[in-house]
Amino acid sequence: MPTLLSRRGLIRGITAVAAATTLATGLTACGGDSDAATTDTAGTVTVGRVSNGAATPTELKVTEVKSISAALPESVRSSGTLKIVVGALPDGFPPLAYVGSDQKSLTGAEPDLARLVAAVLGLRPEISNATWENMFVGIDSGRADIGFSNITDTEERKKKYDFASYRKDNLGFEVLKKSTWNFDGDYRNLAGRTVAVDNGTNQEKILLEWQTKLKQEGKQLTVKHYAGKNATHLALTGGKIDAYFSANPGIAYHIRQTAASPDPTRSGGTFSGAGATLQGLIAATTKKGSGLARPVADAIDHLIENGQYAKWLAAYNLSDEAVAKSEVNPPGLPLDNS
C-alpha cells in the first residue's frame, strides 16, 4: 500500500462482504475450521475454495522443501506452526482478504498465499484476523509471526519490520470491455478523457498531477468524483466516464463480477502505486531481525519457479501484479512518502 489513503481507497472501493468483531487482544483466531476450509490433505491447498466467486477454485499440491524450512528460526521450526495475521477487520477487502461464502473462513488472495508459503515451509498455518492497526501490534508482540495483508514495503516501516515481497502494488484503470482505449503507461493518453477517482486517495493525488501536466501542455483531462462505487460503475456503463482509476485488486474483482453482465469491463492498464520512478511492492511482513523474511522469500521463489505462484495470481485475476522473484527488504516508498 503506497499510503494509508490508498489502502482506504482500496477498502472503500471494493464491496465489503462480512463484518466481524475483534477480541480484546485485537486478534481473532481463524484457524481450525478456517484453515480446514482451504487446506485439504497434507500438502494440498485449494486456492479460492470459499471465495464466493472472487476466484476460480484451484487445487495446488505443495510439499515441504527441507532446504528452505531448515533455515527457519528455531522457535518457529520447533513450534510446527506459522502464526499468520491478516488486517481485514471489520469488513474485509475482496479479493484480497475477507470472510468467505461459508460465513466463517478468512479467504482471499492474501491468506491463500500465506497457506501456500506455510506448506512449503512444512508448517501448519494458523491464521488470525485483526484490524489494520492491531495486525502490527500482533507482529510487534510476537502473537503473530508474519503479516500477509496487502502491506506495502516502505522505508518508514523498515525501521521496525523485515519484508519479503510477493506482488506489485499497482493502481489500475477499469474500462468497458468494448472500449478501445488503453493507458499504456503514458499519462498523455488521458488527454481528452473523463476519468473517475475516489476522493482522498493516492490514486486521486496521482491523477490530479497528470491533469496539471496535461493542462500545461494545452490538453484537457476531466476528473470526476462520485458518492460511491455503485454510482461510479453506473457512470462507466452509462458512458459518462471513460475509465475508473482505482486500486488494481479492486478493479480485478469487479471485472470478474461483470464478466457475465450486459456491460462487462476489462483492465485498461496499470500504474505503480509508488509513482513513476519506483515500482511499489506488497510484502510479507515480519518483526525486524526475526530471521523469518529470508526463508519466506525463498518459499515464495519456490512457488514462482514451479508455476504455483502464477496459478495463485490467475485464480484471483491478479496476474498483472506478478513479480519475477521475492526480494528481502527491496527499495520501498521513501521516507517522505511512506
Automatic annotation (TrEMBL):
Q: What UniProt keywords are attached to this protein's entry?
A: Signal
Signal peptide bounds: 1-29
Transmembrane helix recorded as keyword: no
Which Pfam families does the protein's record reference?
Answer: SBP_bac_3 (PF00497)
Give start and end of each Solute-binding protein family 3/N-terminal domain.
83-320
Organism domain of life: Bacteria
Query: Which protein is depicted?
Result: ABC transporter substrate-binding protein
What organism, scientifically named, is this protein from? Streptomyces shenzhenensis
